């Protein structure tokens, strides 16, 4: 009778060990899934941020070009003003 209990006890111990291993693997899998979800979320956020960055860079470029044009226009108007003032003084 003791010999029959021994194999049963071994099987129960092995079953307990396998259950513990299964729980450990489930825990590892859950951690991996959570990490993967976080990675996917961060990656999506990075893509959105990159798209926003490109839009903002395009706006900055347009504003810089507009500023250069305004500076050139201002210089031209100042030169024209000087010319007109000289002509006015001559008359």
Automatic annotation (TrEMBL):
Residues 8-87 form a coiled coil. It comes from the Eukaryota. Keywords: Coiled coil. This is Uncharacterized protein. It comes from Mustela putorius furo (European domestic ferret). The lineage of its organism: Eukaryota, Metazoa, Chordata, Craniata, Vertebrata.
């Amino acid at each position: 009778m003791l010999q029959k209990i021994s194999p049963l006890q071994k099987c129960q111990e092995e079953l307990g060990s396998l259950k513990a291993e299964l729980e450990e693997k489930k825990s590892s899998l859950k951690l991996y899934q959570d990490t993967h979800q976080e990675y996917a979320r961060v990656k999506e956020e990075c893509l959105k941020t990159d798209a926003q960055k490109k839009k903002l860079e395009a706006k900055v470029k347009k504003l810089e070009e507009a500023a250069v044009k305004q500076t050139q226009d201002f210089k031209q108007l100042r030169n024209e003003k000087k010319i007109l003032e000289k002509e006015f003084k001559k008359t």
